[in-house]
Write a structure and sequence with these properties.
- By secondary structure, this protein is an alpha+beta fold.
- About 45% of the residues lie in helices and about 25% in strands.
- The protein contains nine helices and nine strands.
- It has a six-stranded antiparallel sheet. The chain has a three-stranded antiparallel sheet with strand order 1-3-2.
- Helix 1 packs across helix 3 and helix 5 runs antiparallel to helix 9.
Length: about 250
């Protein structure tokens, strides 16, 4: 799980309303009051009060009696979020060519607070099941691309990140990760094997614009079908794609 940010004090009710709103996803397109009572430690009156507020703000609507769904108003927010996704449109053609060249799935990720988020993806002809999907927030300490993003943090900010993650990383794992991050910080490149998804190998390279890390390009593939020669070729292709995107963004930025 991503590291938990410091909780803002005095906004418990607002936090609960937002938690309810964020429960909606592609696998849970509708919710009932019973769902809210099961998932949140709240009373029935509180559940109805939160639902009433979300309806007042036109964020949800009652599709059938007692069954609530997101309203079309959310599409406006989605369009605003998509418009703010850094360099997504510039990255997609490069990802498409990278996927075609390597025959494997390619992604563009950037850091959002304490998480890595996938903003764009180009799937191969034989797509694989991976946790990094567009919009998903993932930990910064697992996976090649995430570690590239984590390596850009200063020593002080990295220590704060580890403090927030807490027991999710053992002392031994943290020491190993810190050594990896030192090397990644120098090369801007990382590999990983089964760190996020079982059996999946990944190669990733950072994207820098005016000495600012703006994201990472990565290729993910089932490790069992990759020879050392395949992995070397993918590494070359990933670094070339990152370099190409850097050139485009330097001109664009």
């Amino acid at each position: 799980m991503p590291a938990q940010p410091q909780r803002t004090k005095g906004v418990d009710s607002a936090r609960r309303v937002l938690q309810i709103l964020l429960q909606f996803n592609e696998n849970t397109p509708e919710l009932t009051v019973e769902n809210l009572l099961e998932d949140h430690d709240i009373s029935v009156p509180s559940a109805y009060r939160y639902i009433s507020l979300l309806r007042e703000m036109d964020l949800i609507e009652e599709r059938e009696k007692g069954r609530f769904v997101l309203s079309p108003q959310v599409l406006r927010l989605a369009r605003a979020a998509e418009a703010s996704f850094d360099y997504r449109a510039k990255a997609q053609p490069i990802l498409d060519r990278l996927a075609e060249t390597t025959g494997e799935t390619s992604l563009y990720l950037r850091r959002v607070n304490d998480s890595a988020v996938c903003l764009a993806i180009a799937e191969s002809d034989h797509p694989i099941s991976i946790s990094f999907r567009p919009g998903n927030l993932m930990p910064l300490h697992s996976g090649a691309a995430a570690k590239v993003l984590l390596s850009d943090l200063s020593a002080a900010k990295l220590a704060q990140y580890f403090q927030r993650v807490g027991p999710a990383i053992s002392k031994q794992a943290r020491e190993t990760l810190e050594r990896d991050l030192d090397a990644i910080g120098v090369t801007g490149y990382a590999e990983s094997a089964a760190e996020v998804d079982q059996g999946v190998w990944a190669s990733a390279a950072g994207i820098r614009v005016r000495d600012r890390l703006v994201g990472a390009v990565t290729v993910v593939a089932p490790g069992y079908r990759l020879s050392e020669e395949n992995r070397g070729a993918i590494a070359v292709a990933v670094k070339a794609a990152a370099h190409e995107l850097e050139g485009i963004l330097a001109h664009f930025d």
